[in-house]
Amino acid sequence: MVDDESDARGVITALLEELYPNIEVCAEAESVGGAVAVLEKTEADILFLDVQLCDGNGFDVIDRADYKPDIVIFVTAFDKYAISAIRKSAFDYLLKPISRTDFREAINRALLALNSYEPDTHTKSVQLRNNQIPIAGKVALPSLTGLNMVDTQQIVRCEANGNYTVVYLTNGRKETVSRTLGQFEKDLLSQGFFRIHHKHLVNLNHVLAYHKGKAGGSIELVGGALVEVSTRKKPELLQVFQAS
Questions:
Q1: How far apart are CA 194 and CA 139, in angstroms?
Q2: Same domain? 108 vs 158
Q3: Same domain, 83 and 40
Q4: H/E/C letters for each residue in 192-223?
């Protein structure tokens, strides 16, 4: 979590300990620079982010950080920043002093979006969802009529678009689905996919070439797409290529 007031960070920590003991607070920061550094190390799933910080604002964190969590919840005393937060793909926007009801609703929605927990609105706990049975070689893409089962090797890459993901297929078609890129990463990691950037998850079986360049360079995929590689992910990606 990022806030330049220790008391504000303490409020969020206390709410999490009481309502969601399974959620671990992995790091705290009080500045833009500190937040960017912490995000690179922790790769947190949820980021609580104040707007006004001692050396800038929360939007600077989003712009500067190479790694951005799938869930960003702005927490601020000012409602005038809501539109700017939406433009930065904020998952939610909580006003100080934080309402317990609003906090619980935001976290329940975040956990559902991450697809790791099932919130129980009648208790103070959040339980792991253990009854999911994966279908080998397939991934379910939500549609207006239900679910479309797609062979994972028909997926060239997935690109984050806020709380949605654009899925690019080998036939040139693309689907925009209401799942975060983090969810796709969990489903596809064991099937030859690699997250080369906070916005990009690619199928390594469809990589044609790696190109050096600024920051982490880029990779060329079947179909001609050039996709940016983050500086942080470059060493690991090159190790994967050398081992194959």
A1: 16
A2: no
A3: yes
A4: CEEEEECCEEEEHHHEEEEECCCCCCEEEECC
Radius of gyration, CA atoms only, the chain: 19
- Consecutive 10-residue runs of the chain (244 residues): their mean pLDDT? 93 93 90 90 88 90 84 87 73 89 88 56 30 56 76 93 88 88 83 90 93 90 93 87 72
DSSP 8-state code for residue 79: G
For residues 164 and 146, what is the distance between their CA atoms, to the nearest angstrom? 16
* Cβ contact 5:51 at 8 Å: no
How many Å apart are CA 162 and CA 59, to the nearest integer? Answer: 15
Cβ-proximal residues to 96 (8 Å cutoff; 6+ apart), any chain: 8, 75, 76, 77
Q: Please state whether the peptide bond connecting residue 97 to the residue before it is cis, i.e. omega within 30 degrees of 0.
A: yes
Residue 211: C-alpha distances to residues 109, 193, 215, 216, 235 (Å): 39, 19, 11, 9, 13
End of a domain among 126, 159, 180? 126
What domain range is 103 assigned to? 6-126
Q: Which residues contact 219 (CB under 8 A, 6 or more apart)?
A: 196, 202, 207, 208, 209, 210, 211, 226, 227, 229, 237
SS3 call for 9: helix
1 in any annotated domain: no
Give the CATH number of the domain where residue 32 resides.
Answer: 3.40.50.2300
The CATH number that applies at residue 181 is 2.40.50.1020
The three-class DSSP label of residue 150 is strand
